[in-house]
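Hello,

Our lab assistant flagged a job as stuck in the queue for most of the afternoon. It eventually completed. Since we weren't sure the result was trustworthy after the delay, we are filing this so someone can double-check. Below is the sequence as submitted and the structure that was eventually returned. Let us know if re-running is recommended.
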Amino acid sequence: MPSVTINNISKAYSSIRALDHISFDVGKREIFGLIGPDGAGKTTLFRILTTLLLPDDGTASVEGLDTVKQYREIRNIVGYMPGRFSLYQDLTVEENLNFFANVFNTSMQENYDLIKDIYIQIEPFKKRKTGRLSGGMKQKLALCCALIHKPSVLFLDEPTTGVDPVSRKEFWEMLKRLKQQNISILVSTPYMDEAMLCDKIALIQSGKILSIDTPENIIAGYPQKIYAVKGENNYRLLEYLRKNPDVQSCYIFGEYLHVTLNNEFDFRFPDKVEVNPTKASIEDCFIRLMDHRPERVSD
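-- returned structure --
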């Protein structure tokens, strides 16, 4: 049985459809990534799965429990780290941890082994008010609080947004260790590079799932050759290439343009141009799926 099952879930806010018939499963001991930009519907789905919102249509279950009918039981077995830092800023690190442990009728000592690797990094600051912690330290404390009752499923909504690169790397290393402790993890992120750190991913945009598979399989399925193109003036080059009928797509990727073609094409341009074949990335796949998805019909 999957840890999480989502079947045809939809949710609308007035005329805006946040989720449009979403369906997928999250396996046991799996790090499942929900990958998409802000406004794609990630937070709405997480709130439904953690029983904070009711869906308009469809059903969802967590560890076999229905999110509507058995919401009380679900709240005891999941950990939720919302995208916005929500711990008590005027309490110390230690006080926040003890508070959340008491809410779930447990203690920090009882489940210390689960949070030990994370807690030892913030323990020197246990008497410090939470509001005075750095972004990386707040992130680690929030994860400890989400784990303090030993959940079987962990929901992390954009946990690395606004965090420095070193803390991001440390955080994903923590998730890999948590997976080995029989915890299923559903994590959302707008960062395409983090998709490669997941066992399986769903690419989501405007409330619709564009693709679900392993990151490697999604990349392997990219159907065209991609060229990394760089000129003396990339913005002028971008404008030129996008006007050419032989060019199918052209997007900025760092200091290069990623270009796909409809036909054979000579990259002659008034300025000097560097052209090299390159491998597709998750971001390339996401953009292609966006470009080729059917037009949505307004409700």
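-- support follow-up --
The delay was a queue issue, not a problem with the job. The result is valid. DSSP finds nine helices and 14 strands in the chain. The longest strand covers residues 16-26.
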